[in-house]
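Friendly challenge for the regulars: who can give me the structure tokens for this chain first? No prize, just bragging rights.
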Amino acid sequence: MSFSVNTNAGAAVALQYLTATQGQLDKTQSAINSGLKVANARDDGAIFAIAQNQRSQVAGYTAVINSINNATSAVDVALSAGQSISDLLIQMKTKALAAADSSLDTASRQALNANFTALRDQITTIVTNATFNGFNLVNGSTTKITALASADGSRRITTDAQNMKLSGSIVTVKLTNTISTQAKASTLVATIQSSLTNVNSALAKLSAGAAKFSIQATFAQKLSDTLTQGIGNLVDANMAQESAKLQSLQVKQQLGVQALSIANQAPQTILSLFR
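First reply, four minutes later:
Bragging rights claimed.
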């Protein structure tokens, strides 16, 4: 064993171990602070890359769910409009039937006709206002509404629009129809009933579309949740393990400091040779 004041091999070795312990301690403290064992690419490049790809998928499904929710809302507005139109047609049929009574006096028929035309015009108001996020599925401005169905945007789901404007193929009641005479009222009863049947059929189609969107949204949410759980399995820190590791490393750190202190005192023995 040589004695040197220029080189202290023991201190160098103690410092190396202490530095290694400090590095492990920093990593453990980072895991505890962030809750992640792989917080960035430096921690584990391969795992980080896999996790990032999965995060991209989760973000994609978030966009899918938002798209489906928007489409669902547009269909819900259309359903509400259709239900209101169906109710109005029932009331209009009642007024037409009452006006078809040949024994009705003129004043009563005029009152019924005024009520009838107000109900008729209300259909137009409902159709015009049944808009969500720029989509109106009951005024004939669009033929369908489409939503994303996959995270890469390659697959989509659609629901057909249902044009419920007056004088259309569903609501065949015309903009100018009235029940001002017994003959007109009698003729309109069948027309209104046909329109009512068509509207109820259109509502069934819209409802089927809403159900389709709902099923796809539930599926997309489950996929997103599964992917999120998978990401957690890859990068989340086990806090119980990290806690135990922290205690161990703190003890090693204290011992390393003591070992370095002892090693640094070694050159002091050289002084005894010169007394």
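Residues 13 and 256 are 10 Å apart (CA to CA). The beta strands are 144-148, 156-160. Your move, everyone else.
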